[in-house]
Design brief:
- The protein has 99 residues and is of the alpha+beta class.
- It has helices at 2-25, 72-80, 87-96, and strands spanning 40-45, 48-53, 61-66, 82-84.
- The longest helix is centred in the first third of the chain and has 24 residues, at 2-25.
Length: 99
């Protein structure tokens, strides 16, 4: 009985190690199509802050916040686009930008 227990535990450890090594080697495997879970993207649009719906190239709203007046790190983030999951997250970020 103790040998069966030892072999079972060894098998579980080997499988766990194999799964861990696979996930470590392929970190994108767990991202589950991350972009589709976002509702909005906040980006720079001709020097102003703009809100884009998911998978759209046209902003639905352009805010009177000039991006060149923001800190450099915020400008860089806005040039790449800041993905937002919810309306609450959007409101919090707009407040941070001064709206």
């Amino acid at each position: 009985m103790s040998k069966l227990w030892f072999y079972s535990l060894s098998l579980i450890c080997a499988i766990s190690l194999a799964i861990s090594l696979f996930l470590f080697a392929n970190p994108s495997f767990l991202q589950f199509n991350q972009e589709s879970s976002y509702s909005y993207t906040l980006k720079d649009f001709h020097g102003k802050l703009a809100l884009y719906p998911n998978n759209s190239d046209t902003p639905t709203e352009v805010y009177e916040v000039y991006t060149h007046l923001l800190p450099e790190q915020d400008v860089l983030s806005l040039q790449q686009g800041i993905p937002l999951k919810s309306e609450a997250e959007l409101q919090r970020l707009l407040e941070d930008f001064g709206l």
